[in-house]
Amino acid sequence: VSQSAVLLRNGLRLAGILLAFCFDMEFSLLIFVWMEITASACGLGFSMLLTARHLNAIARTRPGDMLMPSMARMRAYVTPAYLAQVVGLAQGPDLVKMLVAKLSGAVQTGAFGFAAALASMLQRYLPVFLLIGMVRPLFVSQQARGRDPARLILLANLVFKLNVFVIAPVTMLLLVVGERLTELLSGGKFPEAWQYLAALLLLLVAQTLHVVLGLLALAAEEARAGLVGTMYGLAGIVAGLFAYPLMGPLSMCAGLIVSELIWCRVMHGALKKHGFHFRIDWPGLLRLWLAAAVALLPLVLARSYLSGASLPALLSAIALTGCAYLFTARL
After folding, report:
1. DSSP readout, 214-276?
2. How many percent of the chain have pLDDT more than 90?
3. Whole-angstrom distance, CA of residue 178 vs CA of residue 115
Protein backbone atom coordinates (compact mmCIF):
# COMPACT_ATOMS: atom_id res chain seq x y z
CA VAL A 1 0.00 0.00 0.00
CA SER A 2 2.69 2.48 1.03
CA GLN A 3 4.83 1.70 -2.00
CA SER A 4 1.91 2.24 -4.39
CA ALA A 5 1.04 5.54 -2.69
CA VAL A 6 4.63 6.77 -2.94
CA LEU A 7 4.79 5.85 -6.63
CA LEU A 8 1.51 7.64 -7.33
CA ARG A 9 2.55 10.77 -5.43
CA ASN A 10 5.95 11.01 -7.09
CA GLY A 11 4.47 10.20 -10.49
CA LEU A 12 1.87 12.97 -10.22
CA ARG A 13 4.52 15.42 -9.07
CA LEU A 14 6.75 14.54 -12.00
CA ALA A 15 3.84 14.69 -14.45
CA GLY A 16 2.93 18.16 -13.21
CA ILE A 17 6.49 19.42 -13.66
CA LEU A 18 6.68 17.95 -17.17
CA LEU A 19 3.35 19.53 -18.15
CA ALA A 20 4.50 22.90 -16.85
CA PHE A 21 7.64 22.73 -18.99
CA CYS A 22 5.87 21.36 -22.08
CA PHE A 23 3.29 24.15 -22.11
CA ASP A 24 5.75 26.90 -21.04
CA MET A 25 3.73 27.66 -17.93
CA GLU A 26 4.96 30.16 -15.39
CA PHE A 27 6.52 27.90 -12.76
CA SER A 28 6.30 29.87 -9.53
CA LEU A 29 6.82 28.64 -5.99
CA LEU A 30 3.09 28.85 -5.30
CA ILE A 31 2.32 26.53 -8.25
CA PHE A 32 4.90 24.04 -7.00
CA VAL A 33 3.38 24.11 -3.50
CA TRP A 34 -0.11 23.43 -4.88
CA MET A 35 1.32 20.68 -7.06
CA GLU A 36 2.89 19.11 -3.98
CA ILE A 37 -0.36 19.40 -2.00
CA THR A 38 -2.39 17.84 -4.83
CA ALA A 39 0.04 14.95 -5.32
CA SER A 40 0.21 14.27 -1.57
CA ALA A 41 -3.60 14.40 -1.22
CA CYS A 42 -4.02 11.95 -4.10
CA GLY A 43 -1.43 9.66 -2.56
CA LEU A 44 -3.21 9.83 0.81
CA GLY A 45 -6.60 9.09 -0.73
CA PHE A 46 -5.19 6.20 -2.74
CA SER A 47 -3.50 4.66 0.30
CA MET A 48 -6.70 5.01 2.37
CA LEU A 49 -8.66 3.27 -0.39
CA LEU A 50 -6.19 0.39 -0.66
CA THR A 51 -5.99 0.06 3.13
CA ALA A 52 -9.78 -0.11 3.39
CA ARG A 53 -9.92 -2.79 0.67
CA HIS A 54 -7.22 -4.79 2.40
CA LEU A 55 -8.95 -4.61 5.80
CA ASN A 56 -12.30 -5.57 4.25
CA ALA A 57 -10.66 -8.56 2.57
CA ILE A 58 -9.22 -9.66 5.92
CA ALA A 59 -12.61 -9.20 7.60
CA ARG A 60 -14.25 -11.44 4.97
CA THR A 61 -11.66 -14.21 5.04
CA ARG A 62 -10.90 -14.17 8.79
CA PRO A 63 -13.92 -12.61 10.53
CA GLY A 64 -12.97 -14.00 13.96
CA ASP A 65 -9.42 -12.64 13.96
CA MET A 66 -10.09 -9.09 15.20
CA LEU A 67 -7.48 -8.06 17.76
CA MET A 68 -7.30 -4.70 19.45
CA PRO A 69 -3.85 -3.10 19.17
CA SER A 70 -1.85 -3.07 22.39
CA MET A 71 -1.44 0.54 23.49
CA ALA A 72 1.25 -0.45 25.99
CA ARG A 73 3.24 -2.10 23.20
CA MET A 74 2.87 1.00 21.04
CA ARG A 75 3.94 3.34 23.85
CA ALA A 76 6.94 1.15 24.65
CA TYR A 77 8.26 1.77 21.13
CA VAL A 78 6.98 5.24 20.28
CA THR A 79 8.06 7.06 23.46
CA PRO A 80 11.81 6.31 23.34
CA ALA A 81 11.79 6.68 19.54
CA TYR A 82 10.32 10.18 19.84
CA LEU A 83 12.74 11.16 22.61
CA ALA A 84 15.63 9.91 20.48
CA GLN A 85 14.52 12.22 17.68
CA VAL A 86 14.36 15.17 20.08
CA VAL A 87 17.79 14.46 21.59
CA GLY A 88 19.15 13.90 18.07
CA LEU A 89 18.48 17.55 17.26
CA ALA A 90 21.47 18.40 19.46
CA GLN A 91 23.85 16.45 17.23
CA GLY A 92 22.48 17.09 13.76
CA PRO A 93 24.17 18.94 10.89
CA ASP A 94 21.98 22.02 11.45
CA LEU A 95 23.30 22.54 14.97
CA VAL A 96 26.85 21.92 13.76
CA LYS A 97 26.43 24.64 11.13
CA MET A 98 25.36 27.03 13.87
CA LEU A 99 28.40 26.10 15.96
CA VAL A 100 30.73 26.60 12.99
CA ALA A 101 29.16 29.99 12.34
CA LYS A 102 29.79 30.91 15.98
CA LEU A 103 33.38 29.63 16.13
CA SER A 104 34.72 30.41 12.63
CA GLY A 105 35.14 33.36 10.35
CA ALA A 106 32.92 34.20 7.41
CA VAL A 107 35.04 32.32 4.84
CA GLN A 108 35.15 29.05 6.78
CA THR A 109 31.46 29.31 7.65
CA GLY A 110 30.53 29.90 4.01
CA ALA A 111 32.71 27.02 2.80
CA PHE A 112 31.28 24.64 5.41
CA GLY A 113 27.72 25.70 4.63
CA PHE A 114 28.31 25.23 0.90
CA ALA A 115 29.75 21.75 1.48
CA ALA A 116 26.88 20.84 3.81
CA ALA A 117 24.33 21.94 1.17
CA LEU A 118 26.00 19.74 -1.48
CA ALA A 119 26.16 16.78 0.91
CA SER A 120 22.50 17.24 1.84
CA MET A 121 21.52 17.29 -1.83
CA LEU A 122 23.44 14.06 -2.46
CA GLN A 123 21.92 12.46 0.63
CA ARG A 124 18.39 13.08 -0.66
CA TYR A 125 19.12 11.07 -3.80
CA LEU A 126 20.88 8.13 -2.17
CA PRO A 127 18.79 4.96 -2.63
CA VAL A 128 18.08 4.32 1.06
CA PHE A 129 16.97 7.92 1.70
CA LEU A 130 15.12 8.36 -1.58
CA LEU A 131 13.19 5.08 -1.25
CA ILE A 132 12.87 4.92 2.54
CA GLY A 133 9.09 4.90 2.25
CA MET A 134 9.31 1.70 0.22
CA VAL A 135 12.19 0.04 2.07
CA ARG A 136 10.78 0.48 5.59
CA PRO A 137 7.54 -1.52 5.02
CA LEU A 138 9.60 -4.23 3.36
CA PHE A 139 11.59 -4.81 6.55
CA VAL A 140 8.50 -4.73 8.75
CA SER A 141 6.53 -7.12 6.53
CA GLN A 142 9.40 -9.60 6.38
CA GLN A 143 9.57 -9.70 10.17
CA ALA A 144 5.78 -9.84 10.56
CA ARG A 145 5.69 -12.96 8.39
CA GLY A 146 8.08 -14.68 10.75
CA ARG A 147 10.95 -14.83 8.28
CA ASP A 148 14.47 -15.80 9.32
CA PRO A 149 16.41 -12.76 10.65
CA ALA A 150 19.27 -13.78 8.36
CA ARG A 151 17.18 -12.70 5.38
CA LEU A 152 16.64 -9.26 6.88
CA ILE A 153 20.37 -8.96 7.58
CA LEU A 154 21.11 -9.90 3.97
CA LEU A 155 18.66 -7.25 2.79
CA ALA A 156 20.19 -4.67 5.15
CA ASN A 157 23.68 -5.36 3.80
CA LEU A 158 22.38 -5.02 0.25
CA VAL A 159 20.83 -1.62 1.01
CA PHE A 160 24.03 -0.47 2.75
CA LYS A 161 26.29 -1.51 -0.13
CA LEU A 162 23.95 0.11 -2.65
CA ASN A 163 24.50 3.47 -0.96
CA VAL A 164 28.25 2.98 -0.63
CA PHE A 165 28.25 2.15 -4.34
CA VAL A 166 27.18 5.78 -4.95
CA ILE A 167 29.23 7.45 -2.19
CA ALA A 168 32.59 5.75 -2.85
CA PRO A 169 33.36 7.21 -6.32
CA VAL A 170 32.22 10.71 -5.32
CA THR A 171 34.47 10.69 -2.26
CA MET A 172 37.47 9.43 -4.24
CA LEU A 173 36.75 12.03 -6.91
CA LEU A 174 36.97 14.82 -4.34
CA LEU A 175 40.39 13.59 -3.27
CA VAL A 176 41.63 14.01 -6.86
CA VAL A 177 39.88 17.07 -8.31
CA GLY A 178 37.82 18.25 -5.33
CA GLU A 179 39.41 21.67 -5.03
CA ARG A 180 38.88 22.54 -8.69
CA LEU A 181 35.35 21.12 -8.70
CA THR A 182 34.17 23.05 -5.64
CA GLU A 183 35.86 26.19 -6.95
CA LEU A 184 33.88 25.96 -10.19
CA LEU A 185 30.60 25.05 -8.48
CA SER A 186 30.91 27.92 -5.98
CA GLY A 187 31.98 30.48 -8.59
CA GLY A 188 35.51 30.65 -7.16
CA LYS A 189 34.32 31.55 -3.64
CA PHE A 190 34.93 28.32 -1.72
CA PRO A 191 37.68 26.17 -3.27
CA GLU A 192 38.58 24.86 0.20
CA ALA A 193 35.07 23.41 0.65
CA TRP A 194 36.17 20.12 -0.94
CA GLN A 195 37.77 18.86 2.29
CA TYR A 196 34.59 19.52 4.27
CA LEU A 197 32.52 17.85 1.55
CA ALA A 198 34.78 14.77 1.54
CA ALA A 199 34.41 14.49 5.33
CA LEU A 200 30.63 14.92 5.09
CA LEU A 201 30.47 12.15 2.48
CA LEU A 202 32.21 9.84 4.94
CA LEU A 203 29.53 10.96 7.39
CA LEU A 204 26.92 9.84 4.83
CA VAL A 205 28.39 6.33 4.98
CA ALA A 206 27.94 6.33 8.77
CA GLN A 207 24.43 7.77 8.42
CA THR A 208 23.56 5.05 5.93
CA LEU A 209 24.65 2.42 8.44
CA HIS A 210 22.55 4.26 11.03
CA VAL A 211 19.47 4.05 8.80
CA VAL A 212 20.05 0.37 7.98
CA LEU A 213 20.41 -0.58 11.65
CA GLY A 214 17.37 1.58 12.37
CA LEU A 215 15.35 -0.48 9.90
CA LEU A 216 16.41 -3.67 11.66
CA ALA A 217 15.53 -2.05 15.00
CA LEU A 218 12.08 -1.17 13.62
CA ALA A 219 11.54 -4.79 12.63
CA ALA A 220 12.68 -5.93 16.09
CA GLU A 221 10.66 -3.17 17.84
CA GLU A 222 13.82 -1.97 19.59
CA ALA A 223 13.63 1.73 20.44
CA ARG A 224 15.36 2.07 23.82
CA ALA A 225 18.79 1.40 22.32
CA GLY A 226 18.19 4.20 19.82
CA LEU A 227 17.59 6.67 22.65
CA VAL A 228 20.62 5.44 24.62
CA GLY A 229 22.82 5.55 21.52
CA THR A 230 21.67 9.08 20.71
CA MET A 231 22.50 10.26 24.22
CA TYR A 232 25.92 8.62 24.15
CA GLY A 233 26.48 10.06 20.68
CA LEU A 234 26.49 13.57 22.11
CA ALA A 235 30.04 12.79 23.23
CA GLY A 236 31.12 13.01 19.60
CA ILE A 237 29.94 16.62 19.33
CA VAL A 238 31.68 17.49 22.59
CA ALA A 239 34.91 15.90 21.31
CA GLY A 240 34.58 17.90 18.10
CA LEU A 241 34.29 21.13 20.08
CA PHE A 242 37.42 20.31 22.08
CA ALA A 243 39.36 19.55 18.88
CA TYR A 244 38.09 22.67 17.09
CA PRO A 245 41.14 24.87 17.87
CA LEU A 246 43.36 22.25 16.17
CA MET A 247 41.25 21.10 13.22
CA GLY A 248 38.66 23.81 12.64
CA PRO A 249 35.35 22.76 11.03
CA LEU A 250 36.85 19.36 10.17
CA SER A 251 36.71 18.52 13.87
CA MET A 252 32.92 18.96 13.81
CA CYS A 253 32.68 16.64 10.81
CA ALA A 254 34.75 14.10 12.74
CA GLY A 255 32.51 14.63 15.77
CA LEU A 256 29.40 13.88 13.71
CA ILE A 257 31.01 10.69 12.38
CA VAL A 258 31.97 9.60 15.91
CA SER A 259 28.38 10.28 17.09
CA GLU A 260 26.97 8.08 14.33
CA LEU A 261 29.45 5.28 15.05
CA ILE A 262 28.62 5.36 18.77
CA TRP A 263 24.91 5.08 17.97
CA CYS A 264 25.56 2.21 15.58
CA ARG A 265 27.66 0.37 18.17
CA VAL A 266 24.96 0.65 20.83
CA MET A 267 22.22 -0.44 18.40
CA HIS A 268 24.35 -3.31 17.08
CA GLY A 269 24.69 -4.71 20.59
CA ALA A 270 20.95 -4.36 21.25
CA LEU A 271 20.00 -6.09 18.00
CA LYS A 272 22.11 -9.12 18.95
CA LYS A 273 19.77 -9.69 21.90
CA HIS A 274 16.87 -9.91 19.42
CA GLY A 275 18.67 -12.47 17.26
CA PHE A 276 19.84 -9.98 14.61
CA HIS A 277 23.56 -10.68 14.25
CA PHE A 278 24.33 -7.97 11.70
CA ARG A 279 27.77 -8.16 10.08
CA ILE A 280 29.05 -5.72 7.49
CA ASP A 281 30.21 -7.29 4.24
CA TRP A 282 33.73 -5.89 4.46
CA PRO A 283 35.07 -7.70 1.33
CA GLY A 284 32.18 -6.33 -0.73
CA LEU A 285 32.75 -2.78 0.52
CA LEU A 286 36.48 -3.06 -0.12
CA ARG A 287 35.79 -4.07 -3.72
CA LEU A 288 33.63 -0.99 -4.23
CA TRP A 289 36.30 1.38 -2.88
CA LEU A 290 39.02 -0.34 -4.91
CA ALA A 291 36.86 -0.12 -8.06
CA ALA A 292 36.43 3.62 -7.43
CA ALA A 293 40.19 4.05 -6.95
CA VAL A 294 41.01 2.13 -10.15
CA ALA A 295 38.44 4.10 -12.18
CA LEU A 296 39.97 7.37 -11.00
CA LEU A 297 43.54 6.52 -12.03
CA PRO A 298 43.20 8.38 -15.40
CA LEU A 299 42.08 11.49 -13.51
CA VAL A 300 45.09 11.19 -11.21
CA LEU A 301 47.40 11.08 -14.22
CA ALA A 302 45.64 14.07 -15.80
CA ARG A 303 45.40 16.04 -12.57
CA SER A 304 47.75 18.80 -13.71
CA TYR A 305 45.62 19.39 -16.82
CA LEU A 306 42.32 19.27 -14.95
CA SER A 307 43.50 21.80 -12.36
CA GLY A 308 42.78 24.53 -14.90
CA ALA A 309 39.95 22.86 -16.81
CA SER A 310 36.59 24.48 -17.38
CA LEU A 311 33.43 23.09 -15.83
CA PRO A 312 32.20 21.34 -19.04
CA ALA A 313 35.61 19.71 -19.56
CA LEU A 314 35.76 18.61 -15.93
CA LEU A 315 32.21 17.22 -16.02
CA SER A 316 33.04 15.32 -19.22
CA ALA A 317 36.07 13.77 -17.55
CA ILE A 318 33.94 12.87 -14.52
CA ALA A 319 31.30 11.26 -16.76
CA LEU A 320 33.93 9.09 -18.45
CA THR A 321 35.29 8.15 -15.05
CA GLY A 322 31.79 7.19 -13.96
CA CYS A 323 31.49 4.83 -16.90
CA ALA A 324 34.86 3.31 -16.02
CA TYR A 325 33.67 2.87 -12.42
CA LEU A 326 30.55 1.03 -13.54
CA PHE A 327 32.74 -1.28 -15.62
CA THR A 328 35.30 -1.98 -12.89
CA ALA A 329 32.61 -2.47 -10.22
CA ARG A 330 31.15 -5.33 -12.26
CA LEU A 331 34.45 -7.22 -12.39
Report:
1. HHHHHHHT--HHHHHHHHHHHHHHHHHHHTHHHHTHHHHHHHHHHHHHHHHHHHHHHHHHTT-
2. 20
3. 11
Q: Which of 232, 239, 237, 262 is nearest to 97 (CA)?
A: 237
Please compute Rg for the chain using Cα positions: 23
Nearest one of 203, 230, 13 to 122, comparing CA atoms: 203
Q: Residue 173 class from Cβ within 10 Å (0-12 exposed, 13-18 middle, 19+ buried)?
A: buried
Q: Write out the DSSP string of 18-53.
A: HHHHHTT----HHHHHHHHHHHHHHHHHHHHHHHHH
Residues 6+ apart with CB under 8 A from 247: 254
CA distance 326 to 331: 9
Tally of helices (H runs) and strands (E runs) in the chain: 16, 0
Q: Answer yes or no: are the C-beta atoms of 77 and 221 closer than 8 Å.
A: yes
The pLDDT tens digits of the residues spanning 13-63 come to: 888 878 877 777 776 778 878 888 988 898 888 888 888 887 787 777 766
191: pLDDT strictly greater than 90 = no
As a whole number of angstroms, the longest Cα–Cα distance in the chain is: 74
